[in-house]
Amino acid sequence: VTSVELTQAHLDRIAAVDGPVHAFLHLDPEGALETARKVDEDRAAGVELPALAGVPVAVKDVLVTEGLPTTAGSRILEGWIPPYDSTVSANLKAARMPILGKTNMDEFAMGSSTEHSGYGPTHNPWDLDRIPGGSGGGSAAALAAFEAPLAIGSDTGGSIRQPASVTATVGVKPTYGGVSRYGAIALASSLDQLGPCGRTVLDTAMLHEVMGGHDEKDATSLDEPVPACVDAAMQGATKDLTGVKVGVIKELSGSSDDGGEGYQAGVKQRFEESLERLKAMGAEIVEVSCPSFEYALAAYYLILPSEASSNLAKFDSVRFGLRVEKDTVEKTMLATRAEGFGDEAKRRIILGTYALSAGYYDAYYGSAQKVRTLIQRDFAAAFEQADVLVSPTTPTTPFKLGERLDDPLAMYLNDVATIPANLAGIPGMSLPSGLAPEDGLPVGFQILAPAHEDARLYRVGAALE
Ligand code: GLN
Protein backbone atom coordinates (compact mmCIF):
# COMPACT_ATOMS: atom_id res chain seq x y z
CA VAL A 1 0.00 0.00 0.00
CA THR A 2 1.00 3.61 -0.45
CA SER A 3 1.20 5.96 2.50
CA VAL A 4 -1.73 7.93 1.08
CA GLU A 5 -3.84 4.76 1.04
CA LEU A 6 -2.76 3.81 4.55
CA THR A 7 -3.42 7.30 5.89
CA GLN A 8 -6.76 7.58 4.12
CA ALA A 9 -7.82 4.17 5.45
CA HIS A 10 -7.23 5.38 8.99
CA LEU A 11 -9.02 8.68 8.35
CA ASP A 12 -11.97 6.68 7.00
CA ARG A 13 -11.93 4.43 10.04
CA ILE A 14 -11.90 7.50 12.30
CA ALA A 15 -14.86 8.96 10.41
CA ALA A 16 -16.72 5.67 10.83
CA VAL A 17 -16.11 4.94 14.53
CA ASP A 18 -14.83 7.98 16.39
CA GLY A 19 -18.29 9.40 17.09
CA PRO A 20 -19.04 6.92 19.89
CA VAL A 21 -15.37 6.31 20.85
CA HIS A 22 -14.26 9.98 20.96
CA ALA A 23 -10.54 9.22 20.90
CA PHE A 24 -9.67 12.42 19.01
CA LEU A 25 -10.00 16.06 20.00
CA HIS A 26 -8.69 17.40 16.73
CA LEU A 27 -7.97 15.90 13.32
CA ASP A 28 -5.59 17.07 10.63
CA PRO A 29 -6.57 15.14 7.48
CA GLU A 30 -4.98 17.62 5.06
CA GLY A 31 -1.68 17.75 6.93
CA ALA A 32 -1.52 13.97 7.29
CA LEU A 33 -2.31 13.33 3.62
CA GLU A 34 0.20 15.96 2.53
CA THR A 35 2.97 14.23 4.50
CA ALA A 36 1.86 10.88 3.07
CA ARG A 37 1.87 12.21 -0.49
CA LYS A 38 5.44 13.48 -0.16
CA VAL A 39 6.58 10.14 1.27
CA ASP A 40 4.99 8.31 -1.66
CA GLU A 41 6.67 10.67 -4.13
CA ASP A 42 10.07 10.20 -2.50
CA ARG A 43 9.62 6.46 -2.35
CA ALA A 44 8.76 6.36 -6.04
CA ALA A 45 11.86 8.45 -6.75
CA GLY A 46 14.04 5.98 -4.87
CA VAL A 47 14.87 8.31 -1.96
CA GLU A 48 16.03 6.47 1.16
CA LEU A 49 13.42 6.87 3.90
CA PRO A 50 13.29 6.25 7.68
CA ALA A 51 11.74 2.94 8.80
CA LEU A 52 8.37 4.37 9.82
CA ALA A 53 8.09 6.90 6.98
CA GLY A 54 4.50 7.09 5.78
CA VAL A 55 3.03 5.27 8.80
CA PRO A 56 0.41 7.50 10.44
CA VAL A 57 0.49 8.31 14.15
CA ALA A 58 -1.93 9.82 16.69
CA VAL A 59 -0.52 12.28 19.20
CA LYS A 60 -1.75 12.85 22.76
CA ASP A 61 -2.88 16.43 23.13
CA VAL A 62 -0.28 17.03 25.83
CA LEU A 63 2.32 17.51 23.07
CA VAL A 64 2.71 20.94 21.57
CA THR A 65 2.30 20.72 17.78
CA GLU A 66 3.03 23.69 15.56
CA GLY A 67 -0.10 25.00 13.87
CA LEU A 68 -2.37 22.34 15.42
CA PRO A 69 -4.63 23.12 18.38
CA THR A 70 -3.15 21.90 21.67
CA THR A 71 -5.29 21.85 24.82
CA ALA A 72 -3.92 19.12 27.14
CA GLY A 73 -7.60 18.28 27.61
CA SER A 74 -8.26 21.61 29.32
CA ARG A 75 -10.78 24.32 28.53
CA ILE A 76 -8.21 26.85 29.69
CA LEU A 77 -6.21 26.17 26.51
CA GLU A 78 -9.18 26.02 24.16
CA GLY A 79 -8.31 27.67 20.86
CA TRP A 80 -4.57 27.89 21.54
CA ILE A 81 -2.48 27.12 18.47
CA PRO A 82 1.17 26.70 19.36
CA PRO A 83 3.75 28.48 17.22
CA TYR A 84 6.35 25.73 17.71
CA ASP A 85 6.82 21.96 17.85
CA SER A 86 7.72 19.80 20.82
CA THR A 87 10.87 17.77 20.24
CA VAL A 88 8.83 14.59 19.91
CA SER A 89 6.51 16.06 17.28
CA ALA A 90 9.57 17.36 15.44
CA ASN A 91 11.04 13.83 15.64
CA LEU A 92 7.83 12.34 14.19
CA LYS A 93 7.99 14.82 11.35
CA ALA A 94 11.67 14.08 10.73
CA ALA A 95 10.70 10.38 10.59
CA ARG A 96 8.15 11.40 7.93
CA MET A 97 5.16 10.07 9.88
CA PRO A 98 1.77 11.60 9.00
CA ILE A 99 0.15 13.04 12.15
CA LEU A 100 -3.55 12.10 12.10
CA GLY A 101 -4.57 14.36 14.95
CA LYS A 102 -4.54 14.99 18.68
CA THR A 103 -6.01 12.51 21.14
CA ASN A 104 -8.24 13.06 24.15
CA MET A 105 -6.89 12.97 27.68
CA ASP A 106 -7.73 13.85 31.25
CA GLU A 107 -7.15 17.55 31.85
CA PHE A 108 -3.39 18.13 32.15
CA ALA A 109 -3.00 14.34 32.38
CA MET A 110 -4.70 14.14 35.79
CA GLY A 111 -6.78 11.00 35.91
CA SER A 112 -7.17 7.33 35.19
CA SER A 113 -10.29 7.32 33.02
CA THR A 114 -10.23 10.29 30.59
CA GLU A 115 -13.42 11.44 32.32
CA HIS A 116 -11.58 14.54 33.55
CA SER A 117 -11.15 15.81 29.98
CA GLY A 118 -12.68 19.23 29.49
CA TYR A 119 -14.10 17.91 26.21
CA GLY A 120 -16.03 14.82 27.32
CA PRO A 121 -14.79 11.30 27.99
CA THR A 122 -13.33 8.74 25.61
CA HIS A 123 -15.08 5.36 25.54
CA ASN A 124 -13.33 1.99 25.61
CA PRO A 125 -13.77 0.30 22.21
CA TRP A 126 -14.07 -3.10 23.99
CA ASP A 127 -17.20 -1.87 25.78
CA LEU A 128 -18.36 1.68 25.19
CA ASP A 129 -19.76 1.94 28.74
CA ARG A 130 -16.30 1.43 30.20
CA ILE A 131 -13.26 3.64 30.73
CA PRO A 132 -10.39 3.52 28.23
CA GLY A 133 -7.99 4.32 31.07
CA GLY A 134 -6.29 7.63 31.64
CA SER A 135 -4.93 10.03 31.28
CA GLY A 136 -4.04 8.81 27.79
CA GLY A 137 -7.36 7.10 27.08
CA GLY A 138 -7.61 8.78 23.67
CA SER A 139 -4.35 7.34 22.35
CA ALA A 140 -5.12 3.85 23.68
CA ALA A 141 -8.70 3.86 22.36
CA ALA A 142 -7.48 5.06 18.94
CA LEU A 143 -5.22 2.00 18.78
CA ALA A 144 -7.82 -0.45 20.09
CA ALA A 145 -10.41 0.86 17.60
CA PHE A 146 -7.91 0.64 14.72
CA GLU A 147 -8.13 4.39 14.15
CA ALA A 148 -4.32 4.66 14.29
CA PRO A 149 -1.53 2.08 14.09
CA LEU A 150 0.72 3.99 16.50
CA ALA A 151 0.24 6.69 19.12
CA ILE A 152 2.13 8.89 21.55
CA GLY A 153 1.40 8.95 25.25
CA SER A 154 2.73 10.51 28.45
CA ASP A 155 3.18 8.67 31.72
CA THR A 156 3.47 10.48 35.05
CA GLY A 157 1.97 7.77 37.22
CA GLY A 158 0.75 5.24 34.66
CA SER A 159 -1.02 7.22 31.94
CA ILE A 160 0.55 5.16 29.17
CA ARG A 161 0.54 1.75 30.87
CA GLN A 162 -2.89 1.78 32.53
CA PRO A 163 -4.75 2.79 29.32
CA ALA A 164 -2.75 0.12 27.44
CA SER A 165 -3.79 -2.44 30.05
CA VAL A 166 -7.53 -1.75 29.85
CA THR A 167 -7.61 -1.60 26.02
CA ALA A 168 -5.40 -4.65 25.31
CA THR A 169 -2.72 -2.55 23.62
CA VAL A 170 1.01 -2.03 24.29
CA GLY A 171 2.39 1.05 26.04
CA VAL A 172 5.86 1.92 27.24
CA LYS A 173 7.08 4.46 29.75
CA PRO A 174 10.78 4.93 28.93
CA THR A 175 13.53 5.64 31.47
CA TYR A 176 13.13 9.17 32.84
CA GLY A 177 15.08 11.45 30.51
CA GLY A 178 15.10 8.95 27.64
CA VAL A 179 12.61 10.97 25.59
CA SER A 180 12.73 14.75 25.52
CA ARG A 181 9.99 16.55 27.44
CA TYR A 182 10.56 19.80 25.53
CA GLY A 183 7.17 21.01 24.38
CA ALA A 184 5.23 18.50 26.46
CA ILE A 185 2.82 20.38 28.69
CA ALA A 186 4.14 19.57 32.16
CA LEU A 187 2.13 17.87 34.87
CA ALA A 188 4.83 16.88 37.39
CA SER A 189 8.24 17.52 35.92
CA SER A 190 10.17 15.00 38.02
CA LEU A 191 7.75 12.19 37.06
CA ASP A 192 6.60 12.98 33.49
CA GLN A 193 7.86 10.86 30.64
CA LEU A 194 6.63 10.62 27.04
CA GLY A 195 6.46 7.21 25.44
CA PRO A 196 5.29 5.03 22.54
CA CYS A 197 1.97 3.18 22.24
CA GLY A 198 1.12 0.49 19.69
CA ARG A 199 -0.69 -2.77 19.14
CA THR A 200 2.43 -4.93 19.12
CA VAL A 201 5.70 -4.86 21.02
CA LEU A 202 7.75 -4.50 17.82
CA ASP A 203 5.66 -1.55 16.54
CA THR A 204 6.11 0.12 19.90
CA ALA A 205 9.86 -0.51 19.82
CA MET A 206 10.13 1.15 16.41
CA LEU A 207 8.25 4.23 17.62
CA HIS A 208 10.37 4.37 20.79
CA GLU A 209 13.51 4.66 18.68
CA VAL A 210 11.96 7.50 16.66
CA MET A 211 10.92 9.42 19.79
CA GLY A 212 13.98 8.97 21.98
CA GLY A 213 17.43 10.47 22.15
CA HIS A 214 19.35 13.34 23.66
CA ASP A 215 17.91 16.84 23.40
CA GLU A 216 19.71 19.97 24.49
CA LYS A 217 16.36 21.71 24.98
CA ASP A 218 15.50 19.44 27.92
CA ALA A 219 17.84 19.81 30.89
CA THR A 220 16.89 16.34 32.18
CA SER A 221 17.43 14.61 28.83
CA LEU A 222 19.88 11.71 29.09
CA ASP A 223 23.05 12.16 27.09
CA GLU A 224 23.22 8.59 25.84
CA PRO A 225 22.15 6.65 22.74
CA VAL A 226 18.54 5.53 22.32
CA PRO A 227 18.16 1.97 23.68
CA ALA A 228 18.22 -0.77 21.01
CA CYS A 229 14.50 -1.51 21.38
CA VAL A 230 13.95 -3.07 17.95
CA ASP A 231 16.88 -5.49 18.25
CA ALA A 232 15.66 -6.53 21.68
CA ALA A 233 12.14 -7.13 20.38
CA MET A 234 13.52 -9.27 17.55
CA GLN A 235 15.56 -11.25 20.06
CA GLY A 236 12.48 -11.73 22.25
CA ALA A 237 10.49 -12.96 19.28
CA THR A 238 12.71 -16.06 19.19
CA LYS A 239 10.90 -17.05 22.43
CA ASP A 240 14.07 -18.04 24.20
CA LEU A 241 14.45 -16.51 27.65
CA THR A 242 17.13 -18.84 28.94
CA GLY A 243 19.09 -17.11 31.69
CA VAL A 244 16.57 -14.30 32.20
CA LYS A 245 15.51 -13.80 35.81
CA VAL A 246 11.99 -12.49 36.28
CA GLY A 247 11.04 -11.08 39.70
CA VAL A 248 7.40 -11.12 40.75
CA ILE A 249 6.75 -8.12 42.99
CA LYS A 250 4.98 -9.65 45.95
CA GLU A 251 3.22 -6.44 46.98
CA LEU A 252 1.80 -5.84 43.49
CA SER A 253 1.06 -9.31 42.26
CA GLY A 254 -2.28 -9.86 43.91
CA SER A 255 -1.17 -13.39 44.73
CA SER A 256 0.41 -13.03 48.16
CA ASP A 257 -1.10 -12.65 51.63
CA ASP A 258 -0.67 -8.89 51.71
CA GLY A 259 -0.93 -8.09 48.03
CA GLY A 260 -4.16 -9.83 47.14
CA GLU A 261 -6.57 -7.15 48.19
CA GLY A 262 -8.55 -5.49 45.44
CA TYR A 263 -7.20 -7.78 42.71
CA GLN A 264 -9.81 -9.29 40.44
CA ALA A 265 -9.73 -13.11 40.12
CA GLY A 266 -9.35 -13.08 36.32
CA VAL A 267 -6.49 -10.58 36.54
CA LYS A 268 -4.61 -12.88 38.92
CA GLN A 269 -5.37 -15.90 36.74
CA ARG A 270 -4.03 -14.30 33.54
CA PHE A 271 -0.98 -13.05 35.42
CA GLU A 272 -0.18 -16.55 36.69
CA GLU A 273 -0.60 -17.93 33.18
CA SER A 274 1.86 -15.38 31.79
CA LEU A 275 4.37 -16.44 34.45
CA GLU A 276 3.97 -20.05 33.33
CA ARG A 277 4.64 -19.02 29.75
CA LEU A 278 7.78 -17.14 30.80
CA LYS A 279 8.94 -20.25 32.64
CA ALA A 280 8.28 -22.42 29.59
CA MET A 281 10.54 -20.13 27.55
CA GLY A 282 13.39 -20.69 29.97
CA ALA A 283 13.03 -17.74 32.33
CA GLU A 284 13.63 -18.24 36.02
CA ILE A 285 10.86 -16.85 38.22
CA VAL A 286 11.71 -15.48 41.67
CA GLU A 287 9.64 -13.55 44.18
CA VAL A 288 10.88 -10.15 45.35
CA SER A 289 9.54 -7.88 48.05
CA CYS A 290 9.30 -4.09 47.92
CA PRO A 291 7.93 -3.15 51.35
CA SER A 292 7.97 0.63 50.80
CA PHE A 293 5.52 0.40 47.89
CA GLU A 294 2.79 0.55 50.51
CA TYR A 295 3.49 4.29 50.74
CA ALA A 296 3.96 4.95 47.02
CA LEU A 297 0.45 6.20 46.33
CA ALA A 298 0.52 8.58 49.31
CA ALA A 299 3.93 9.96 48.33
CA TYR A 300 2.86 10.34 44.71
CA TYR A 301 -0.26 12.28 45.65
CA LEU A 302 1.89 14.79 47.54
CA ILE A 303 4.70 15.13 45.00
CA LEU A 304 2.44 15.26 41.96
CA PRO A 305 0.05 17.99 43.20
CA SER A 306 2.99 20.01 44.53
CA GLU A 307 4.75 20.04 41.18
CA ALA A 308 1.47 20.38 39.27
CA SER A 309 0.35 23.42 41.26
CA SER A 310 3.61 25.09 40.35
CA ASN A 311 3.49 24.04 36.67
CA LEU A 312 -0.11 25.20 36.28
CA ALA A 313 0.63 28.65 37.69
CA LYS A 314 1.54 29.78 34.18
CA PHE A 315 -2.09 29.59 33.09
CA ASP A 316 -2.74 33.10 34.29
CA SER A 317 -5.04 34.49 31.55
CA VAL A 318 -2.15 36.53 30.15
CA ARG A 319 0.14 34.13 28.34
CA PHE A 320 -2.04 31.38 26.87
CA GLY A 321 -5.59 30.47 25.99
CA LEU A 322 -8.69 31.52 27.89
CA ARG A 323 -9.15 35.03 29.28
CA VAL A 324 -12.22 36.02 31.27
CA GLU A 325 -11.94 39.81 31.33
CA LYS A 326 -12.74 41.58 34.67
CA ASP A 327 -12.00 45.07 35.94
CA THR A 328 -8.70 44.20 37.68
CA VAL A 329 -5.81 41.92 36.77
CA GLU A 330 -6.32 39.83 39.89
CA LYS A 331 -10.02 39.33 39.24
CA THR A 332 -9.28 38.47 35.60
CA MET A 333 -6.83 35.81 36.73
CA LEU A 334 -9.22 34.39 39.31
CA ALA A 335 -12.17 34.30 36.93
CA THR A 336 -10.09 32.72 34.16
CA ARG A 337 -8.73 29.99 36.40
CA ALA A 338 -12.13 29.41 38.02
CA GLU A 339 -13.75 28.91 34.64
CA GLY A 340 -10.89 27.29 32.74
CA PHE A 341 -9.80 24.53 35.15
CA GLY A 342 -11.96 21.49 35.87
CA ASP A 343 -12.60 19.95 39.30
CA GLU A 344 -9.67 17.52 39.34
CA ALA A 345 -7.16 20.22 38.35
CA LYS A 346 -8.53 22.48 41.08
CA ARG A 347 -8.41 19.68 43.65
CA ARG A 348 -4.74 19.03 42.87
CA ILE A 349 -3.78 22.71 42.76
CA ILE A 350 -5.29 23.16 46.23
CA LEU A 351 -3.57 20.02 47.56
CA GLY A 352 -0.25 21.07 46.06
CA THR A 353 -0.25 24.64 47.26
CA TYR A 354 -1.20 23.40 50.74
CA ALA A 355 1.58 20.81 50.78
CA LEU A 356 4.12 23.40 49.68
CA SER A 357 3.02 26.19 52.02
CA ALA A 358 5.43 27.57 54.59
CA GLY A 359 5.62 25.37 57.67
CA TYR A 360 4.19 22.30 55.94
CA TYR A 361 6.88 21.76 53.33
CA ASP A 362 9.01 19.37 55.38
CA ALA A 363 6.07 17.48 56.80
CA TYR A 364 4.50 16.77 53.41
CA TYR A 365 6.75 17.30 50.38
CA GLY A 366 9.88 16.48 52.39
CA SER A 367 8.42 13.24 53.76
CA ALA A 368 7.17 12.23 50.35
CA GLN A 369 10.65 12.70 48.92
CA LYS A 370 12.04 10.42 51.61
CA VAL A 371 9.52 7.75 50.68
CA ARG A 372 10.62 8.19 47.09
CA THR A 373 14.17 7.34 48.12
CA LEU A 374 12.95 4.22 49.95
CA ILE A 375 11.10 3.11 46.83
CA GLN A 376 14.22 3.62 44.74
CA ARG A 377 16.14 1.47 47.23
CA ASP A 378 13.49 -1.25 47.10
CA PHE A 379 13.83 -1.34 43.32
CA ALA A 380 17.63 -1.38 43.51
CA ALA A 381 17.52 -4.37 45.89
CA ALA A 382 14.93 -6.17 43.75
CA PHE A 383 16.98 -5.68 40.58
CA GLU A 384 19.88 -7.40 42.31
CA GLN A 385 17.73 -10.52 42.32
CA ALA A 386 16.11 -10.20 38.89
CA ASP A 387 16.67 -8.72 35.41
CA VAL A 388 13.07 -7.53 35.11
CA LEU A 389 10.22 -7.20 37.58
CA VAL A 390 6.61 -8.01 36.77
CA SER A 391 3.07 -7.48 38.07
CA PRO A 392 -0.43 -7.07 36.67
CA THR A 393 -0.61 -3.51 35.29
CA THR A 394 -3.90 -2.76 37.02
CA PRO A 395 -5.75 -4.65 39.76
CA THR A 396 -8.97 -4.83 37.73
CA THR A 397 -10.27 -4.79 34.18
CA PRO A 398 -11.75 -1.45 32.99
CA PHE A 399 -14.47 -0.14 35.29
CA LYS A 400 -17.65 1.57 34.15
CA LEU A 401 -17.65 5.23 33.12
CA GLY A 402 -18.96 7.27 36.03
CA GLU A 403 -18.30 4.53 38.58
CA ARG A 404 -15.38 6.21 40.35
CA LEU A 405 -15.92 9.82 39.34
CA ASP A 406 -17.20 10.90 42.75
CA ASP A 407 -14.56 8.94 44.63
CA PRO A 408 -11.08 10.29 43.82
CA LEU A 409 -9.42 7.76 46.13
CA ALA A 410 -10.99 4.80 44.32
CA MET A 411 -9.84 6.35 41.05
CA TYR A 412 -6.30 6.81 42.38
CA LEU A 413 -6.17 3.18 43.56
CA ASN A 414 -6.16 1.96 39.96
CA ASP A 415 -2.58 3.23 39.73
CA VAL A 416 -0.98 1.32 42.64
CA ALA A 417 1.11 -0.86 40.37
CA THR A 418 2.21 1.79 37.88
CA ILE A 419 3.20 4.69 40.17
CA PRO A 420 6.37 3.21 41.76
CA ALA A 421 8.18 3.21 38.38
CA ASN A 422 7.63 6.96 37.98
CA LEU A 423 8.86 7.66 41.51
CA ALA A 424 12.05 5.75 40.68
CA GLY A 425 12.46 6.96 37.07
CA ILE A 426 12.67 3.42 35.70
CA PRO A 427 11.14 2.14 32.43
CA GLY A 428 7.96 0.06 32.28
CA MET A 429 5.76 -1.66 29.71
CA SER A 430 2.21 -2.90 29.72
CA LEU A 431 1.19 -5.52 27.19
CA PRO A 432 -2.00 -7.57 26.82
CA SER A 433 -2.26 -10.81 28.78
CA GLY A 434 -5.65 -11.95 27.54
CA LEU A 435 -9.20 -11.28 28.69
CA ALA A 436 -10.51 -11.92 32.18
CA PRO A 437 -12.76 -15.02 32.04
CA GLU A 438 -15.44 -13.47 34.27
CA ASP A 439 -16.11 -10.33 32.19
CA GLY A 440 -14.28 -10.83 28.88
CA LEU A 441 -12.37 -7.57 29.35
CA PRO A 442 -8.64 -6.85 28.82
CA VAL A 443 -5.99 -7.65 31.41
CA GLY A 444 -2.52 -6.07 31.26
CA PHE A 445 0.88 -7.48 32.18
CA GLN A 446 3.50 -5.03 33.46
CA ILE A 447 7.25 -5.42 32.98
CA LEU A 448 9.72 -3.10 34.73
CA ALA A 449 13.48 -2.79 34.12
CA PRO A 450 16.33 -0.85 35.72
CA ALA A 451 16.95 2.71 34.47
CA HIS A 452 18.63 2.77 31.02
CA GLU A 453 17.69 -0.88 30.41
CA ASP A 454 14.53 -0.19 28.37
CA ALA A 455 15.63 -2.83 25.85
CA ARG A 456 14.91 -5.60 28.41
CA LEU A 457 11.21 -4.66 28.36
CA TYR A 458 11.09 -5.31 24.63
CA ARG A 459 12.89 -8.61 24.82
CA VAL A 460 10.61 -10.05 27.51
CA GLY A 461 7.53 -8.35 26.05
CA ALA A 462 8.09 -9.71 22.56
CA ALA A 463 8.68 -13.20 24.01
CA LEU A 464 5.31 -13.08 25.77
CA GLU A 465 3.41 -11.72 22.80
N1 GLN B 1 -3.70 8.42 36.93
C1 GLN B 1 -2.53 9.08 37.47
C2 GLN B 1 -2.93 10.44 37.96
O1 GLN B 1 -4.06 10.73 37.95
C3 GLN B 1 -1.47 9.12 36.43
C4 GLN B 1 -1.49 10.30 35.57
C5 GLN B 1 -0.42 10.31 34.53
O2 GLN B 1 0.37 9.38 34.40
N2 GLN B 1 -0.39 11.39 33.79
O3 GLN B 1 -2.12 11.20 38.37
TrEMBL record:
Transmembrane segments: none annotated. Signal peptide: none annotated. It catalyses: L-glutamyl-tRNA(Gln) + L-glutamine + ATP + H2O = L-glutaminyl-tRNA(Gln) + L-glutamate + ADP + phosphate + H(+). The active site is at K60, S135, S159. It is an enzyme of class 6 (ligase). Keywords: ATP-binding, Ligase, Nucleotide-binding, Protein biosynthesis. Its EC number is 6.3.5.7. Residues 5-457 form the Amidase domain. InterPro entries: Amidase, Amidase_CS, Amidase_dom, AS_sf, GatA. It comes from the Bacteria. HAMAP family: GatA. Allows the formation of correctly charged Gln-tRNA(Gln) through the transamidation of misacylated Glu-tRNA(Gln) in organisms which lack glutaminyl-tRNA synthetase. The reaction takes place in the presence of glutamine and ATP through an activated gamma-phospho-Glu-tRNA(Gln). Heterotrimer of A, B and C subunits. PANTHER family: GLUTAMYL-TRNA(GLN) AMIDOTRANSFERASE SUBUNIT A (PTHR11895:SF151), TRANSAMIDASE (PTHR11895). NCBIfam families: gatA. This is Glutamyl-tRNA(Gln) amidotransferase subunit A. It comes from Demequina zhanjiangensis.
